[in-house]
Amino acid sequence: MRALWIALVFAVLSLAGTGASLTEERWQTLPQPAPMPPANESGYAKVNGIEMYYAIYGQGEPVLLIHGGLGHADIWSSQVAELSKTHKVIVADSRGHGRSTRNDQPFGYDLMASDYLALLDQLKIQKTALVGWSDGGIIGLDIAMNHPERLTKLYAQAANVTTDGVDPGVLTNKTFAAYIERSGEDYKRLSRTPDQYDAFVGQISHMWESQPSWTKEQLEKITIPTAIVAGDHDEAIKREHTEYMASVIPGAKLIILPNASHFAMLQDPAGYTKSVLDFIDAK
């Protein structure tokens, strides 16, 4: 599996930069995120030996947004702008991503979940809804299994629970290649170690080689209201894997976002945010 991800991050770059076609469907595009709105508060939290960038927007019941692998918090700009009208929205850069630092500790979803819980502790947020995309959804599932008392609801989009849930076809997907290229550019712009993108990718690839690896029995222990979400054209996660997740997590709601891919929050910001609000605000 590590070979798959190493190849994905480095070899697939040859597909990027080809430009958008006039005949592209929405799910084939990769729009740029809008600028982030002004934050109520932002800074760095010292957690588990790293400095973790975070920002807070709006007021109300809290919702934590966790981005995907190689990304950063600013991908949520459109969701933050809308959600912060009625909610206290917390975003952060996961360890090693964006503006957050990393150390020599091996990456693991349990460690990354611990980072976010420590951040919530420092922000004095005892319980929150969580919206996670890709790796962020996996982190959310880890928290739901091991610390359900910290969550009100979980909206997990484009997540997988075993490594064989990843579609090998992602290796030749141009949209995913463009995302990887953009992520490298963003890393150079945001990171305190802008020349270490390859080292960062190598470090996180060790995690992707074997994680996640949860059993049906582990997933069946999730008790919080959960939405398992995917775009109808997700490039990276097999549809049958998404359906399996929804079938084994007790009471999980399966949501398929139309005309959207792994990057649904960018392709259909309004529809994505409405889907989130409909779920987290439902009584």
Automatic annotation (TrEMBL):
Question: Could you tell me which Pfam families the record lists for this protein?
Answer: Abhydrolase_1
Q: Which GO terms describe its molecular function?
A: serine hydrolase activity
Q: Which residues form the AB hydrolase-1 domain?
A: 62-269
Judging by the UniProt lineage, the source's domain of life is Bacteria
Instruction: List the InterPro entries.
Output: AB_hydrolase_1, AB_hydrolase_fold
Q: What are the boundaries of the signal sequence? A: none
Tell me the SUPFAM superfamilies matching this sequence.
alpha/beta-Hydrolases
What name does this protein carry?
A: Alpha/beta fold hydrolase
Q: Which key words tag this protein in UniProt?
A: Hydrolase
